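PT: before anyone asks, these are the final sequences, not the draft ones from last week. 706 residues across everything. Please model them as a single complex and drop the result in this thread when it's through.
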Amino acid sequence: KHIVVLPGDGIGTEVSEAAKKVLEAAAEEFDHTFTFEEQAIGGTAIDRYGSPLPDETVAACKNADAVLLGAVGGPKWDQNPSHLRPEKGLLGIRKELNLFANLRPVQGFSNLLHASPLKREVVENSDLLIVRELTGGLYFGTPSERRDGGNSVVDTLAYSRHEIERIVKRAFEAASVRRKHVTSVDKANVLESSKLWREIVEEVSKDYPEVTVEHMLVDAAAMKLITSPSQFDVIVTENMFGDILSDEASVLTGSLGMLPSASLNDSGFGLYEPVHGSAPDIAGEGKANPLAAILSAAMMLKHSFGMNEEAQRIESAVSEALEQGYHTADLDLPGGQQVNTERMTETVIDLLK
Amino acid sequence: KHIVVLPGDGIGTEVSEAAKKVLEAAAEEFDHTFTFEEQAIGGTAIDRYGSPLPDETVAACKNADAVLLGAVGGPKWDQNPSHLRPEKGLLGIRKELNLFANLRPVQGFSNLLHASPLKREVVENSDLLIVRELTGGLYFGTPSERRDGGNSVVDTLAYSRHEIERIVKRAFEAASVRRKHVTSVDKANVLESSKLWREIVEEVSKDYPEVTVEHMLVDAAAMKLITSPSQFDVIVTENMFGDILSDEASVLTGSLGMLPSASLNDSGFGLYEPVHGSAPDIAGEGKANPLAAILSAAMMLKHSFGMNEEAQRIESAVSEALEQGYHTADLDLPGGQQVNTERMTETVIDLLK
Ligand SMILES: CC(C)[C@H](C(=O)O)[C@@H](O)C(=O)O
Ligand SMILES: CC(C)[C@H](C(=O)O)[C@@H](O)C(=O)O
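LR: through. Structure below.
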C-alpha cells in the first residue's frame, strides 16, 4: 500500500511523523508493506511553491492508496489573500479527491473525562459519529461573490439529489455496524435544501429497516449535544452544519487532542487527519499529542485497507498507553507520567507489539 | 403605550398572560397606562383563520408600540405544507416588522447553576448577549428552490452592506453599555459573505474605540461557548449562525426556561418572546415557567419604552423570587417550593411592589 503523507504546518509535521512510525510498526507486526511519500500542503506549500495545493501534491494523492494529513494553517498566512491561504489547500484536496464523506468519531476516554467542561454524568458513555457532507453545501456552492460594486454579497447552499443520497447512505452503513440509530440534522422548517435532505433520508432509510432514524433541527441538535450527548449514535448533516456540530462535539469529552477523522470518497479511498489544528504555539517543541494522528492512521487501516484487526490493535495500544498513565502536556492525567511526542509514540508502538 | 399580545400555541397562552399581568402591575406601580390587544399567530391562527400570520395580526402589530409573543408550534401542525406551518408566522412577522436585531442575553442564576450540564467552575460568571441578524442571511435569501425537476436544490445566503452595518452597530451599542467587548462570529476562511461581514465589523469598530473587537470562526465559537462561556460579552453574527449558537448558549446555564429575547427594528420598536418553545406536552396544565416571558416583558420596557427602572424592578423581582426558593416544575431548586404558573406570577408581582 502506498501512502502519501502531507505533514502541513505547525505540529502537523510532528504528529504525522508519529503516525507514520506507528503505521510502519503495524506493517512489520502484520507483515504488510507500506510505502510512504511526502508532499506539501498548506502554509508550507505556499512558502515553498507559491500555492497551498501544488499540482504535484494532487497528482501524488491521486496515485496513492490513502493520504495522511497533519494539520494546516497558522498566523503567518492569516493575512494572505484568500487563494493563498492554507485552508484553501484543505478545501481543494477534498474537492479534487471527491472526499465527500467526513467521519468524525467522538468517544470519551474514561480516565480523561475529568477534563471535560461537562459533568461526568452528562458526558460519560458518549460514543457518537458525526458524518459530515464535505464537498457540497454552503461551503462549495456558487455563486459565492460580491455584487453591486461590493455593496452586497451572496453565498450558495446547493445540493444535487445524488450528493445527498451518497452521504446519507454512508451514515446508514456506519450506523448498521454501530448502535443502529441515525440522527439526521437539518433546518427543514426554513431551508428548501433541508426539505429535500429530509425526504432523501426517509427514502434511504427504507433500505435499512434495522436502523432507526430521527430528524432533528440544527438548533435543537446544538443544544442536545450538550445536554445529552450519549443519546446520539450517528449524526448525518450538511457541510456547514457538520462543521459547527463536529467542533462543538469535539470539546465534550475533554480530549480534543485525541480525536481522529476520515474523509472518504466513493471507493474507500480516503484522507485521514487529526481534528485538532496546527497549534503554532507549540510547534517544533516535541510536545504535541500524536494520538489523534495515530488514531487517524488506525481509521485508514480500517476504512481504506480493510485491516480491521490491525486498526483495532492500534486503538487498543492507545487506550492502554493512557491507562498506564502516559500522556502529553495537553492532557491532565492525575498520577500519570507526562512524556513528549516521541516517547508517547514509542509507548504506543511497544504496546502494539 | 399600546401592546399587542400574540399568545400563539401551547404554553404560549399561559406565559404571555403571566407577562401581561406583570406589565399591568408595573404600570400601576409606576403610573403608566398600558393597553393590550390580543391577536392570533402560529398554529392557533392556522386553525382559526387558515393562515399562520393573518393580515389583521400584521396590521395590529404595525399600529402597536410593542409586541409580546408567547410561543408558536406543535406536533399538530408538523405535517402541514410549509406555508401552513406555525413557524412561517414567526418568520413572517419578523420580516413584516423589519425586526432585524435579535438580542438574546444568557446569564446564569447562581442558585440554578447546579442544573447546568457544565461544571460550575466552567459556567459561573457567564453573562453574554447574542446579537443575531434576524431578517437576512441564509434563512431569507433567494433563490431558495428545487431545480432540475426536483433533482437539485439551492438556498442563498445574501446580505447587503446596509443589513450587515445596522446589526453590527447594534452589537457595538450593546457592548458599550456592557463589558465593552464584541466577538464577531463568521466563517471568513470559506464564505464570501463572511469576508464582507468581517470588513464591515472592522469599519464600524472605528466608531467605538472603547470597545474591543475579536473575530472568531463559527466552528471555534461553537467550541469556546462550551469551554469558556464566561469569556464572551457580546457576540454578533449572521442569522443561521446566530440560531445555532444562541440555542447552544441557551442550555449552558441550566435554565432555558428563564431566557428572554427581543427582536428589534431600527426605531426601538420590538417583539419580545421567551427563548423556549410551546411545550405542547404541558400546555394548559398551569405548570409552565412564566419567568422567561416575564423577563421578555422587562426587555420591552427597557428597549421599546426606555423604562429602565421599571425593567430593573421586574428583573430584581424575578431574582428575588428564585432566591426565596419559588420555582416551577422545570427548575430544580433544592429546598425550594414548587409552585404553578399563576402562583409564580403572583410572587413576582408581590415582590415588584
Ligand atoms: C479549515 C476549514 C476550511 C475546515 C472546514 O471548515 O471545513 C475546518 O474547519 C474543518 O472542519 O476541517
Ligand atoms: C422557528 C424557527 C424558524 C426560529 C428560527 O430559527 O429563527 C427559531 O428556531 C428561533 O430561533 O427563533
